[in-house]
From TrEMBL:
Segments passing through the bilayer: 39-60, 72-93, 99-118, 130-152, 164-182, 203-226, 232-250, 262-280, 286-306, 327-346, 352-374
Keywords of this entry: Membrane, Transmembrane, Transmembrane helix
Pfam hit, one: MFS_1
Descriptive protein name: MFS transporter
UniProt topology in membrane: Multi-pass membrane protein
InterPro entries documented for this protein: MFS, MFS_dom, MFS_trans_sf, Sugar_transporter_CS
Residue stretches making up the Major facilitator superfamily (MFS) profile domain: 1-389
Subcellular location: Membrane
Length: 389
C-alpha cells in the first residue's frame, strides 16, 4: 500500500470502529419495551461499554508494544462487527449490554494504539497532526452511526435497519485494506500493566471531562425515551450525532486557547447548554433540543476535551501515557455512573425530575471544578515563569 494512503486507511478503520458504538442508540427505547424494562435497565446496558473499556485501559496499556499496532486495529474491527451481528440476531436489551461490552473492548484497543500508529504511518515528528486525525475520525464515527440509523428509521420502524448491514459491509472492506497496512514499529517486551497516573494539578481537568461525558452519556442513553413521548423518537440519533460530532467544529478554536481557558469556557457552556437541551426534550421543542446538543458538544468534545488533555499532558512530564490513561478513566466513569443514577431517578421520580436534579448537580459541580481550575492554573504557569527567570 502506498505510504500516502496509509493514514487515510487507518482513519477509515477508526471511524468504522466507533461507528458501531452508537449505531443502536435510536433503538434503545424499543429494546427496553421489548424486554419490559425501564430507564435503569437501559442505562445499565448502555454502561456495558465502559465495562469493556476500563479494564483494557487499566491493565493492557503495553499490549500494542508487544503485539504491534495493526493486529489491535484488526481485532477492534472484528469486535465491532461481532457486536453488530449480535444486535441483528437478537435485538433486545440483554444483547445490547453484551454488544456494548464488545464495542468497549474494541474501542479501548483502538484508543490504545490509534494515535501512535497514525504518527508512525505519517512519519511525523509532531504527534499533534496524528492526534487531530484520530480525534476527527473517531468523533465522526461516534455520531455518524446513530444519525445514519435514525435516517433509515425515517422510512419506517425496524429492529434491523439498513445501517447495521452497511456497517458490516464497510467494516469487512476495512478489514481487507487494513490487513495490507505496514506495521513499522517492532514488537517490544514492555510490561502489560500500566496503572494510571494523576500528576499534581491534573485532577480538575479529569473531573471536567467526567462532567462533560456524563452529559453526553445522558443524551445517548436516556433522551430517546423522552423524545418518544413527544413523537420525536426518530430524531434521537441526530441528537447523538450533534452532541458528539459537532464538537469538531470548535476544536480549531480550542487549540488557540490556553488549556485552563479552554476548559473553563467549556465548564461555563456545559450547564447552560444542558439546560436548553433538557428543556427542549421535556417540552418537545426540537430546535431548542438540537441547539442545546450542539452547544454541549462544543464543551464536551471541543473545549474541555482538548483543553483538559493538553493540560494533563503538560503536567505529566515523562508519564504522559499513564496520565492520559488516568484522564480517560475519569471520562468513562462519567460516561456510566451518573447515567445509571439518573436512570434510577427517572424510573422513580419521572424523567422531568431526573433531568432537573441532574442539571442542578451538574451546575454545582461545574462551579466547584471551575474554582479548582483557577488554583491548578498556577501549577501550569510555574514552569514557564521559572524558565523566564
Amino acid at each position: 500500500m502506498a505510504a500516502s494512503r496509509a493514514p487515510h486507511t487507518l482513519a477509515l478503520a477508526l471511524c468504522l470502529i466507533t461507528f458501531a458504538v452508537n449505531l443502536q442508540a435510536p433503538l434503545y427505547t424499543a429494546y427496553a419495551e421489548l424486554s419490559g424494562r425501564g430507564a435503569t435497565a437501559t442505562a445499565i446496558a448502555f454502561s456495558g461499554y465502559v465495562l469493556g473499556v476500563v479494564p483494557v485501559l487499566l491493565l493492557l496499556g503495553g499490549l500494542a508494544d508487544r503485539v504491534g499496532r495493526r493486529p489491535l486495529i484488526l481485532l477492534a474491527l472484528c469486535l465491532s462487527m461481532a457486536a453488530t451481528l449480535l444486535m441483528l440476531c437478537a435485538p433486545n436489551l440483554e444483547t445490547l449490554g453484551l454488544a456494548r461490552l464488545l464495542m468497549g473492548i474494541g474501542t479501548a484497543l483502538a484508543s490504545a494504539t490509534g494515535t501512535a500508529y497514525m504518527s508512525e504511518l505519517m512519519q511525523a515528528a509532531d504527534n499533534r497532526r496524528a492526534a487531530n486525525w484520530v480525534t476527527a475520525s473517531t468523533s465522526l464515527g461516534f455520531g455518524l452511526g446513530a444519525a445514519l440509523t435514525s435516517a433509515f428509521l425515517l422510512r419506517g420502524p425496524s429492529l434491523t435497519p439498513g445501517s447495521f448491514y452497511l456497517h458490516l459491509l464497510l467494516a469487512a472492506v476495512a478489514l481487507v485494506i487494513v490487513w495490507r497496512l505496514p506495521d513499522p514499529r517492532p514488537a517490544l517486551k514492555s510490561p502489560l500493566l500500566r496503572l494510571p497516573f494523576y500528576p499534581a494539578g491534573s485532577l480538575p481537568y479529569g473531573l471536567s471531562i467526567l462532567l462533560a461525558w456524563a452529559c453526553v452519556g445522558l443524551v445517548i442513553a436516556l433522551l430517546p425515551s423522552i423524545l418518544k413521548q413527544h413523537g420525536l423518537a426518530s430524531w434521537s440519533g441526530f441528537s447523538t450525532f450533534c452532541v458528539i460530532s459537532c464538537g469538531l467544529l470548535f476544536q480549531p478554536l480550542a487549540r488557540r486557547m490556553t488549556p485552563v481557558r479552554a476548559t473553563s469556557l467549556g465548564l461555563l457552556i456545559l450547564p447552560c447548554s444542558y439546560a436548553l437541551l433538557a428543556w427542549g426534550a421535556n417540552h418537545g421543542e426540537l430546535t431548542a433540543m438540537l441547539v442545546g446538543t450542539v452547544a454541549a458538544s462544543s464543551a464536551c468534545y471541543g473545549f474541555i476535551y482538548l483543553g483538559g488533555l493538553s493540560a494533563v499532558t503538560q503536567l505529566a512530564g515523562h508519564e504522559k501515557t499513564r496520565a492520559s490513561a488516568g484522564f480517560f478513566l475519569l471520562a468513562y466513569l462519567g460516561f456510566s455512573l451518573p447515567v445509571i443514577f439518573t436512570g434510577v431517578l427517572a424510573d422513580r421520580l419521572g424523567a422531568a425530575m431526573a433531568l432537573l436534579l441532574f442539571g442542578v448537580a451538574l451546575a454545582i459541580s461545574c462551579l466547584v471544578v471551575g474554582m479548582a481550575l483557577l488554583r491548578s492554573d498556577a501549577r501550569l504557569r510555574a514552569p514557564a515563569l521559572a524558565a523566564l527567570k
